[in-house]
Design brief:
Elements (H helix, E strand, L loop, with lengths): L2 H10 L4 H8 L3 H9 L6 H12 L16 H11 L1
Helix pairs in contact: 1-3, 2-3
Length: 82
Amino acid sequence: MIGTELKAWRKRHGMTQEMLRVELDVSRQTIVVWEASDKPLPRLTELALIALENVPDCRTTTGHRFTAAELPTVRENVRMRT
């Protein structure tokens, strides 16, 4: 997959740049650069995209945006899991 195909892939799977950034553990700027590039994505990134596409339990983001009032509880829950 080349970088310019990534945006279509991301949108097809209902992901924002931020969601994909979290899933791939890269910076948002990396996603922006990849989506503007006509060069192939790194092989490990392609494999991660295949996993996100085909293994339902692999995804950690849902696209849900928490309200400011919900954030302290969410952060505490995340701390307790780690």
